## 1
Amino acid sequence: MTTPQHPFWLNLGFLLNHPVGYSHEFPFDLPQIQIPDDLDLRHFRGLVTVGRTPQGLLVQGTFQADLDLECARCLTTYEHTLHWEMTELYAFRNRSTSESDLVLPKDARIDLQPFIREDALLAVPITPICKPGCKGLCQVCGADLNTTECGHQAQLDKSSPFSALKNLLEK
Ligand SMILES: [Zn+2]
Ligand SMILES: [Zn+2]
């Protein structure tokens, strides 16, 4: 139902021979996929369920994929796992369709790639953190505090005008 070159094209024509309520699952498992122009995903896994409704074909998907991000605290490149979902209705042309509706093409072939690209990018965190509790970089010498004890942090804590406040808050 899918081709390796265009894994996100789905041929849905066969669904039209089935009654309302029928659904079909399309599993995805791609070790590596580049989504033009610049989105490189690894371990792309997903399940798309296409169901026939009176109004059209309802496409529901859940996806996950890995990509490299730079930690906003320690600036290390790390592998981040994205999770996202999609729901789109491809309306039948002969029903009353509003302007905003996606319309199922005559050949019933649809391309999920634009949705995958957009939703994957939306799932990328604005402030990526490599792991919970990442200590970040030393503000004095720039050392990665996850791997180095440069000692500056202890000094900063003592001399910081906020340390008194911090002590108060911790009480
Ligand atoms: Zn980090
Ligand atoms: Zn330091």
## 2
Amino acid sequence: MNVYVMVCLFIIGGLVGSFYHVLGTRLANNLSIVSPRSHCLNCQKKLKWYDLIPIISFISLRGKCRYCGKYYGIDTFLVELVMALAFPFFYWYYGLSYNYFVILIIFSLLVLIFLTDLKYMIILDSPLIIGSLLIMVLKLLYYDYQEMLIGILSGIFLFLFMLFLGFLGTKIFKRESLGGGDIKLSFVIGLTLNIPLGLTAIILSTFLALPLATYSLLKDQEHEVPYGPFLISGLFIVFLFQDKFLILLNFLLP
Ligand SMILES: [Zn+2]
């Protein structure tokens, strides 16, 4: 394993994470991602380049603005750190391959969805669209147009399937049970995994969501549980262990 490559990937990952944090926070608040330049939301002071070094700036300033001392929370640091670790880790796990690029796309969506769905209860469209397009291109480059077409059709199938479930849920529970973002995310799941594994990912995500959903139902009826983080976690887990899930599927559905 080449240490130099790993260090480079760590740095690139940190920069990407820093960008994702800006992207997620600004788009979720309907702000432009190009202007204004990074500034403190409290004292409005423009941040210098040395205030924006991923991970290091957070540690040296302990998450506070250098100028006014306002504490910004740990989420910037966490997003930068997990992305910085993800780039070299998955490279070590997969090598430079189709799976490496796809897992980075899935992991990026995971980080962004956790950031925006937990904090602002929304799933942004643009990362889903860009992620889908990149996965289509990767299928075309590493496989062929047929593989890409199967992915797209599987995505449409899961999209319609979840749309139908959402419609059914609204009829039965008399309130919106699946958000638009969750339904769009189902397209990405189908596109990436095709139908059998895609459905497995969705089923897995409901099991993952069950403890929190039960807890919030028992505690207060009105509180909504964001489903997006569980859906994307389902996709992430099934993609990572797809060989094992395929064996399980062959065993259950001979
Ligand atoms: Zn400030």
